[in-house]
Give the backbone structure.
Amino acid sequence: MKKFKKLIAEKISTACASAFPGTVVDVDDTEALIEYPPDASMGDLALPCFKLSKMLRRSPVQIALTLASALEGETDFKAEALNGYLNFKISPDALAGSTLSEVFADKELYGSPKNGYGKTVVLDYSSPNVAKPFHIGHLGTTVIGHSLKKLHEFAGYNCVGINYLGDWGTQFGKMIVAYRKWGNKEAVEKGGCDALVELYVRFHNEAEKNEALNDEARAEFHKLELGDEENIALWKWFKDISLAEYSKTYKQLDIEFDSYAGESFYTDKMPAQVQKLRDLGLLKIDDGASIVDLEQYNMPPCLILKKDGSTLYPTRDIAAAYYRYNTYNFDKAIYVTSAAQSLHFAQWFKVVEMMGYPFYNNLVHVPYGTVSINGAKLATRTGNVILLKELLAQAIEKVDRITAEKNPDMSAEKRAEIAEAVGVGAIVFYYLSNNRIKDINFMLEDALSYEGNTGPYVQYTYARTCSLLEKCGTVTMPEKVKITTDEEHELVKVLAQFPERVSAAIEAYEPSYITRFILDLSASFNRFYHNCQILVTDDADVAATRKALTYAVNTVLGTAFSLICLKKTKQI
Ligand code: ARG
């Protein structure tokens, strides 16, 4: 569509110059004003003439009428004036011809904004806290983060995905105390993460009755900080156990990280930043703690050191950003966390700016809303949590059962493969269907439905394009593109919008734009499939065009799936 928006903008600019002598209407500005009409019957594109009205000192109605008659005789589109709008109907053959040739030329790269080459983006996401549960609250950072990575890679950026593991902090003191009091090697080895979480939860329950446990935990953490061998060995062990389990979940989600440098990695990198803050005169002592005052920015102070001199979450983030800038020389550093951490990021971003670091403007916090499941809120400390692995396992099991009912003859192996792709895909798709900032109530039944706007539905559509293509043989760009129905034209219009949707998703850090695109494309394709014969038509040009459209949908759906970490399955 971009190409046609540009073409129309150029024609309008020229038409204005002759219809309204002495005026200059900028092509790019006009292109930016062109929009999609709410109702397809009005046209494929529209230009509201209100902005032009100010510039040209004529009424929008008059401008629209004048331009419509100036543009009469155009072959690639027809312009029509209506209430101060210029509505455009693009020639279906021209739009299909140009869109299909782009898809055939670019294939899997069709839609890429191609504007990231030579630039680096660092993405900090997932980052669970070791020894605490990896619950469905982490689903957001994990899938939004990975999708943003895919989107940036698609645009050509060099991307570094960092899992900033929460592998340092007082919780390790708690774990060490809990393990020595109530744990044992065999039980933890056997139970893995679950056993660790159990110990963690037990610690909190017991500490409610016995305050002294918290002091013990602080002391053990302090020993850990000082490098106590036994505590270090326990800490490493807890971390290895957790990582082994996270890897299973990441594998299911098809996610890999480039770095696992967690919070502990920055322990020796913080003192230099604290010193710099001190040298700049930015540190203030407040009730024994060291803070950076942010009152003039209407924020509470940023805590740098506790009373006892130990470092804090913001201290580590500052040190990590500095290190990453020097290591990766990033053009953008993206942090994906729940909106509950928005203030934390605003605070330390400001501190980095006050420190005079050049990269302060390249830091981006991408927040998302809360998740509840079937109406129930999550609570970490009481143990009332739904683990991400459990949610995935449930989804996989349900799909397996549905598949067995549908295809009783299918081998268990094949079924398992489908169940994993479709079960995990359903969760990811459902999660990414909403604007990220919205709170989500996860309804598993809805996510897994094969009807409605779900993962299984779009995967089914993809599988349908695959089986059609198998019957088509080799598909090439048609010599003569021939569009004869509304369904084909509407389908082409959606395909033509893909590049704009990708750019918008990257600009807004919003994977849900891709999810919505996938739904639009699936719906248009299914209408086309039901109303137009694809494999049997008498007209060779029509047949070639329809096959090419099927190929284009298959390719573009495949690309869009990979942008939101949804697996492509040929069978469902
Ligand atoms: N581990 C943190 C948590 O689970 C998230 C870390 C986010 N990244 C960062 N650089 N602060 O809440």
